[in-house]
Structures are given as structure tokens and as C-alpha cells.
Amino acid sequence: MFRKLLIIGIFAIFIASCEEGIVSECPTDVGDIKLVATFSSIQSELLNKNCALSGCHAGTIPAGGLVLTSGVAYNNIVNKIAYDETMYIKPNDPDNSYLYQRISTNTSSVMPPTGKLPQNMIDTLRVWIENGALNN
What we know:
This protein is mainly α. The protein has one domain (27-130). Helix content is 40%, strand content 4%. The protein has a two-stranded antiparallel ribbon with strand order 1-2.
């Protein structure tokens, strides 16, 4: 009985921490998507479903020469120069990360071209970058 209460207590603390923004890897609901601030989650739920598509950032002629498919995306974006000396992803600095700027902007050049991503998806990407853009 004590063990069950301990587990419930730990779970309640984790949920409260998520709600207060203390835990950086709290699940983010985007419909039926569970996105956390890890690269593996961002790859599978954000990049693979919105960016690494034929005609965009995959295939033989990826847009801007940038491939965002699994297995190569991390090395293609983290600490890599995009344009005007701006990095695609600059660890700990989302405001100076080109990809973050492109998906979070309200201009007509927002990515993906199908429309702005849900805000909680953008926020999760920001947290991942703020936490050092680790390959986790």
C-alpha cells in the first residue's frame, strides 16, 4: 500500500512540475501527439511529419539543400550555418536559431508552407534549444 501511495505522490509532483514549467521534458499535447523537449521526439513528431517530406526537406532535391530526415537531421542543423552567419539551430539560443525563427514567425514565409505549427509544438522546440539542443 505504501509503495502505491509513493508512486502516486511522485506522479503528482511530476504533473505539478509540468504545469509550472519546471520539468523540461513534460509531454505536450498536439491532438494525439505527445511531444517532449528531446531531439528524438522533435524528429519523430515535428520534423518527420511536417518538414522531412518529399518536395520539402527530403528526397533527391531537398528545399534549400537541407535534409531533415531521421539519421541526418541533427548533424545538418545543430551548430551549422544557415544564412548570413545565422545557425540553423544555435544551442541555448532559440532567438538566434534560423529554424526556430522560420517556424515561429507570423510572416508569409513561415515554415512549413502548409501553415504555422501549433504553438505548443513551437514552444517545445524552443525549450529543446534552450536546454542545449542535445541529441537525445
